[in-house]
Amino acid sequence: MTSTPVIDVERLDLKYGDFHAVKDLSFQVRRGEFYALLGTNGAGKTSTLETIEGHRVPTSGAVRVLDQSPRNRAAVRPRMGIMLQESGFSPDLTVRESIGLIGALTRRQDRLQRVLSIVDLTSKAGTKVSQLSGGEKRRLDFATAVWGTPELVFLDEPTTGLDIQSRDALWDAVDKLREDGSTIVLTTHYLEEAQQRADRIGLMHRGTFHQEGTVAELTRTLPAVIQFRLPGTSPALPLPGRRESGGTFLIETHQLQKDLFVLLRWAQDNAIELRELAAGPTRLDDVFRAINNH
Ligand SMILES: Nc1ncnc2c1ncn2[C@@H]1O[C@H](COP(=O)(O)OP(=O)(O)OP(=O)(O)O)[C@@H](O)[C@H]1O
Fold it and tell me: Where do the coiled-coil regions begin and end (predicted)?
């Protein structure tokens, strides 16, 4: 038996006046899944998420969240943790009071000390929100996703403005949420974060999906890349490649292992050092760059 999806979007349309922001969009997120909703600027991600979160009414189509209408806030809100791009905590409240508010609004149970520790704001518990740094404010926003281990967590650009330690700590906490069974929906422009973690990706462009699938499925159609620099003089390359303006050679291939072997054998036979050699699968960045060619 397949369980009911945690999010079920069926033929969603959203219009702002005459402007058609989301067009006939359908997708599902399964329980325990890490789903990344990505896309170009203005693609319709925020509009879609706001509808799922219950802030917007669809122009047409149906949205179900946790088997409820998202407009049924009393039923749905306690089960969701939503980290918005700006949570809008009152500047006059302290960190402790702000986190207390999350508890009051969601009616989930948790311990203040536990959440303060996860977001690394224990020493700032008595500090007013207006006096927090940008990164500290962002960590406070993350408390909304952590408090009471919600069944469904939305992370909207969660790492913007965070230093590397804070980013690592945030992803560790997200891993812990997943271990505890939470379903995660991420939107971000830091594609490598989604590439590393998402089970599936919905890639939006101009109001609809350009592609949807696992990272492997999204990158399958594009070649992998081998890149390197060559010393002053060398014989012709054994494979078709191109020289970038900075002097780096690029070989695009659909047979990475085989072509890498050909290149390494050529370098060995000709006693050539391939400087700054790097080879890797297609990255999501390349999938994004390819969008505008369509
Ligand atoms: N309230 C509104 N009134 C009119 N147009 C709107 C409104 N909100 C969004 N739009 C338009 O709808 C489109 C989708 O916007 P949305 O914010 O959903 O995109 P996004 O994918 O989140 O973009 P970004 O990555 O740039 O944040 C954009 O062209 C935007 O200008």
Answer: none
Any domain includes 91: yes
What is this structure's pTM? 0.88
Of 45, 155, 209, best ligand 1 pocket probe by most atoms within 8 Å of the beta carbon:
45
Gap between the Cα atoms of 20 and 37, Å rounded = 19
Q: Are 166 and 250 in contact (CB under 8 A)?
A: no
CATH number of the domain residue 145 falls in: 3.40.50.300
Residue with CA closest to ligand 1 atom 2: 16
Q: pLDDT averaged over consecutive 10-residue blocks of the chain (294 residues)?
A: 85 96 97 96 94 94 96 92 87 96 93 95 96 94 95 95 92 95 95 92 95 90 90 87 88 93 96 93 84 64
Of 168, 190, 218, which one is at a domain's C-terminal end? 218
Domain count for the chain: 2
- Crossing angle of helices 134-146/95-106, nearest 10°? 30
Examine the fold and report which residue of 173, 194, 218 is the final residue of a domain before the chain moves on. 218
Q: What is the DSSP letter of 236?
A: P
